[in-house]
Every structure is written in structure tokens, then in C-alpha cells.
From TrEMBL:
Protein name, UniProt field: START domain-containing protein 10
UniProt cross-references to SMART domains, sorted A to Z: START
Region annotated Disordered, chain positions: 241-263
Biased composition (Basic and acidic residues): 249-263
PROSITE patterns referenced in this protein's UniProt entry, alphabetically: START (PS50848)
InterPro entries found in the cross-reference section: STARD10_START (IPR041951), START-like_dom_sf (IPR023393), START_lipid-bd_dom (IPR002913), START_lipid_transfer (IPR051213)
Keyword Acetylation: yes
Keywords, in A-Z order: Acetylation, Cell projection, Cilium, Cytoplasm, Flagellum, Lipid transport, Lipid-binding, Membrane, Phosphoprotein, Transport
Transmembrane segments: none
Chief localization: other
GO molecular function, a single term: lipid binding
Organism of provenance: Esox lucius
Pfam families, sorted: START
Keyword Cell membrane found: no
Length: 263
């Protein structure tokens, strides 16, 4: 299937999914964080939505943090590797991301086409999985599929914002129930809080690390090689190996180590 770069209609549709809670069930609601899942999909990790209120972080800072791959390596402890592969347009690129799954599950990786758009007081970033000829599945990872994943950042004034994260992912495997429960009850809210903390520290970090370099805002700074949409195809889930991890038991020691981990 051919790859299409999202247009304004796609971004508007994504925003509506973030803001409209019909058909969603709240699985976690504490403090400034809420996590929902789709009613018909609560037994899977396929579709989750999260929201966090960031009372002392600007929308612009959130937008920068979510784009800045150099900074991500400082705060995202679940990430194994991430890098940009190439650019498609001034507001679309292709990238690679791999992340640690709870032990004893196999780690997952993605190749995605990402697109972004400032829209009034909002900022949006969305992605979905694609095939790139130079990035086939690796033997040590399960190649997962992002059907639609992204962020909606809303400005609430001079120094306040709200962040939505919506993800619809096929993890390419039959997962045990403890993974599904742990994602919605622990992993997801912790991830949102981690982004918030990273945003609070970002302005000081950025002042010391190429403070004027923001290719997501200034396309003329982008030095990635140009790639053609014609070289990409949509990554279909049914073309990838499906593994059954549903019988794996949670490793308590590994869980505690992961739970206590802080950036």
C-alpha cells in the first residue's frame, strides 16, 4: 500500500479522537494524569489514550521535547535506540525507535513516518509504521506496528499546557494479561509523568546544547538525507511474524528494578 503524508484532515481527525471520550473507559485517574482505553479493546494494549496537565510548562517546550531526539536519550529510560532516517517534506520524516519491554517479553522496535503541524494554539505530532528497504526486521527484536500514534499539545496560557498521547499499536504477539494491566495502571501514567519532568528540565539543558538548533521549527536547519515517499510502503501487521508470549510469567525481580528506575 502506498504511503500518504497526513493532510489537515488527518490532523483534525486525530485531535477529535484525543478530545472525544465517547467509547473510552478511564482505567487510571490520579492527580494530573488520566489513562483511557477503548471499551471494546480493554483486554488488549491496542488503543490507549492519556492526558496530563502541565501547569508550569509551555506548549512550545512540550513540542520541542517531543521532537528533540538528542534530549530523548537523556530522559527516556525505556528507549534502546532512536534516530532519524530521512526527511520527506518540511514537516514529515522517517525514523527508527526501539524500546525495552517488561521482562521476560522480547523487546520491540518500529520504523515510522512522522508528521507534525502547529495548528493555532495547538501542536500535533502523529506517526504510523512504514517499511523502509534499509530497515528490515531484526532478529533480536519483534517489529511492532503503529497503526496511529501521536501527541496533541494544547496551550492553556502563558505558562501552562495539556498533553494528550494516543496510541494504537499492534505489538505483534499474544500478550499475557499482566502486561495489559500493567501498561494502563502503571507504565502509561509513569511515562506521562516522565515527559512532564523532562519538560521542566529542558530549557536549562537546551541552553547548553545547540540552543538555536530546532529543525522541526526551522526546516532550513534539517540536514537529513531526502527520501522519496515512493521508496516506502505501509507496514502491514499481517506481514510480520506473530509470537505468542501469553503464557510468560512476570519476573518480579526485573519488575521491581524497572519500577524503581528513575531518569
Amino acid at each position: 500500500m502506498p504511503v500518504q503524508i497526513p493532510d489537515d484532515t488527518d490532523f483534525t481527525s486525530f485531535k477529535e479522537q484525543c478530545e472525544n471520550h465517547d467509547g473510552w473507559t478511564a482505567r487510571y485517574n490520579k492527580g494530573s494524569v488520566t489513562v483511557w482505553c477503548r471499551d471494546e479493546e480493554c483486554k488488549t494494549v491496542q488503543k490507549l489514550k492519556m492526558r496530563i496537565a502541565c501547569k508550569d510548562v509551555t506548549a512550545e517546550t512540550l513540542y520541542d521535547v517531543l521532537h528533540d531526539t538528542s534530549y530523548r536519550k537523556k530522559w527516556d529510560s525505556n528507549m534502546i535506540d532512536t534516530h532519524d532516517i530521512g526527511r520527506l517534506t518540511v514537516n514529515a520524516d522517517v525514523g527508527y525507535y526501539s524500546w525495552k519491554c517488561p521482562s521476560p517479553l522480547k523487546n520491540r522496535d518500529f520504523v515510522t513516518m512522522r508528521s507534525w503541524l502547529p495548528l493555532g494554539n495547538d501542536y500535533l505530532i502523529i506517526n504510523y509504521s512504514v517499511k523502509h528497504p534499509q530497515y528490515p526486521p531484526k532478529k533480536d527484536y519483534v517489529r511492532a506496528v503503529s497503526l496511529l500514534t501521536g501527541y496533541l499539545i494544547q496551550s492553556n496560557g502563558a505558562n501552562s499546557s495539556t498533553l494528550y498521547y494516543l496510541t494504537q499499536v499492534d505489538p505483534k504477539g499474544s500478550l499475557p494479561k499482566w502486561v495489559v494491566n500493567r501498561v494502563s495502571q502503571f507504565v502509561a501514567p509513569k511515562a506521562m509523568k516522565k515527559i512532564y519532568k523532562a519538560c521542566q528540565k529542558y530549557p536549562e539543558w537546551k541552553r547548553k546544547h545547540n540552543p538555536n538548533l530546532k529543525p522541526w521549527m526551522y526546516p532550513e536547519q534539517n540536514t537529513l538525507p531526502c527520501i522519496s515517499v515512493a521508496d516506502l510502503t505501509i507496514q502491514r501487521a499481517d506481514s510480520l511474524e506473530n509470537i505468542d508470549e501469553s503464557s510468560l510469567n512476570e519476573e518480579k525481580q526485573a519488575q521491581h528494578h524497572s519500577d524503581d528506575e528513575e531518569t
